[in-house]
Amino acid sequence: MTNSDDKLMERIQERDEAAFDQIVQRYQDALRRHLLRTVRDEDAAGDLLQEVFLRIWTRADQWDGRGGVKPWLFRMATNLALNQLRSVRRRRETTLEPPPTADDDRGRPADWVADAAETPDEAVQRAESVRRLYGMVDQLSEEKREVWTLVYEDEMGMAGAAEKLGIPTGTVKSRLYHARQQLAREWNELVKEWEDIE
After folding, report:
1. Which terms under GO biological process does the entry name (predicted)?
2. Under a CB-based contact definition with an 8 Å cutoff, are residues 85 and 124 in contact?
3. Distance in angstroms between the alpha carbons of the first and the last residue of the chain
4. Which residues contact 135 (CB under 8 A, 6 or more apart)?
5. Are residues 150 and 124 in the same domain?
6. Distance CA 161, CA 195 (A)
7. Which of 106, 128, 150 is the last residue of a domain?
8. 102 and 145 fall within a common domain
9. What is the pLDDT of residues 93-146, one digit of tens each?
10. Could you say which DSSP state residue 60 is in?
């Protein structure tokens, strides 16, 4: 019998290592993909993943049973990723290293452009957008959120999601369609708010 996330977290709060291992196995791949999409750096994503799991173990008492464990984990991962991107931005802003000159031995100018394709500000803005989107996903009805999570976070096909949920594939498609429509409306409203502020 598979333990629910809530039961596993209760056991982790009691310092049960086997429950912790189950949570790690259950979420490490999805969290790694999420972190990698946010920070776009394999090493940083790996370090942040370890930090998420460390916090699950050391701060399990902060989970109070309200909401799901998965959204709590993804919020924690998103916040750590945003902090990482802000830290990188601050380090780059305070660097005293002069820009490369023509006779520097630091590769071709095209390499500099490729490295600077996304500025730290853009990375933070993108990560903030990801955080906002996850906030909107959290507000979806449970049925829509389940389908969204299976298809987009767990990268499961429509048929696989239908089988896991025990519903017809057409129902999965319908819920996903309505979830996308709702998120698109909310996102457009958010973009209008940002434009009004600027």
Report:
1. DNA-templated transcription initiation
2. yes
3. 53
4. none
5. no
6. 37
7. 128
8. no
9. 444 444 444 444 444 333 433 344 566 667 677 777 777 777 788 888 888 888
10. G
Q: What CATH code is carried by the domain that includes residue 145?
A: 1.10.10.10
Other C-beta atoms within 10 Å of 100: how many? Answer: 13
pLDDT in tens, 14-73: 989 999 999 999 999 989 988 888 888 888 888 899 999 888 888 888 888 777 888 888
38 and 114 in a single domain? The answer is: yes
Distance CA 14, CA 51 (A): 20
Residue in the structure block whose two tokens are 């990698």: 36
Read off the tokens for 83. 């902090």
Tell me which residue range forms the domain holding 195: 139-198
Q: What whole-number distance in Å separates Cα of residue 57 and Cα of residue 59?
A: 6
Based on the domain organization, do 116 and 182 belong to the same domain? no
Amino acid present at 56: I
Among all chains, which residue has been given the structure tokens 């802000």?
A: 86
Please give the DSSP secondary-structure letter assigned to residue 97. P
Residue 156 corresponds to which tokens in the numbers above?
């499961």
